[in-house]
């Protein structure tokens, strides 16, 4: 649908031809995304409106994405591989920058459409293996990237102890009057508070290296080749920041090895067969690029990230649903309960996960 807001945003970029159609796509919790069609050959482009609530400095978001894409394309070129359909190509705004700011202060960005398939859920073990490979390759291609020079676009994004502090503050604030109804959930996280610094502490001590991390590792952020099903590239680079490889691996496990959707508590568990193929694909690509402590601690990422995300959903529920987009008044609470159930199963299967990682780790 072509409304005035979209027409104005599209006019802010140097698109070729005349805009003929716009279709809203995607299921992201934060940004809004449209596919634009123009009356020119290869006339499709992606236009996104960045969430002002999530990204206070959108110019930093775009600079991080630009630098990472440039580095990846250089690595691919050195391997003799074209980046044409394997790297996001951002469209310049008419002022020469990568962002268009509308009259209301909204920030928009655009990039060339790449033909491929996206999935809300991995529909086969082969798809999961490719998902693991995609995030593993991302880490491998960025192994020499100066991660510390990236902007921290969302300060302390995966600083789990700070997330816990924010959660406790939300409990005390009780802005939406919901705390009394979730006492069991509050106690669930209080009981796990002591272990929430497990990754942050190791990053600060140097036991784990700081790397450029995607930070939103799920199958819907992988673009797959429609012909052979292979992973082409990662989408949604808004949260690329300095961090730990454990964050991305933990999130592909949380989203890819679970037996139910993110907001479906019933039937939620960790599927070890799905975990196995994710680990196989990820380590096939990233294994030689990671340090031994990173590989050994990969399952820790699943525990910490699942706990953190569950806690963030409950925090937003307590605050009145101000961050994540929700479909119902209790959507964030349902999400939190589903992730809590997954975390309990991850904790039960910790030893089995360690054994699988050891099986696929590269030889010393």
Note down, in words, how this protein is organized.
- This protein is of the alpha+beta class.
- It has helices at residues 4-11, 58-78, 125-141, 160-173, 183-190, 198-205, 245-256, 272-286, 292-296, 298-319, 331-348, 350-360; strands at residues 19-25, 32-38, 44-49, 100-101, 107-112, 211-213, 222-224, 231-234, 241-243.
- The radius of gyration is 20 Å and the shape is globular.
Question: Which percent range describes the beta-strand content?
Answer: 5-15%
Number of strands: 9
CA radius of gyration is 20 Å
Distance between the termini: 56 Å
Could you list the spans in which at least 5 consecutive residues all have pLDDT below 50? none
Secondary-structure-based class equals alpha+beta
Taking the sheet with the most strands, its summary is:
5 strands, antiparallel
Helix-strand string: HEEEHEEHHHHEEEEHHHHHH
Gross geometry: globular
Strand order of the largest sheet: 1-2-3-5-4
Helix content: 40-55%
Q: Determine the number of helices (DSSP H or I, runs of at least 4 residues).
A: 12
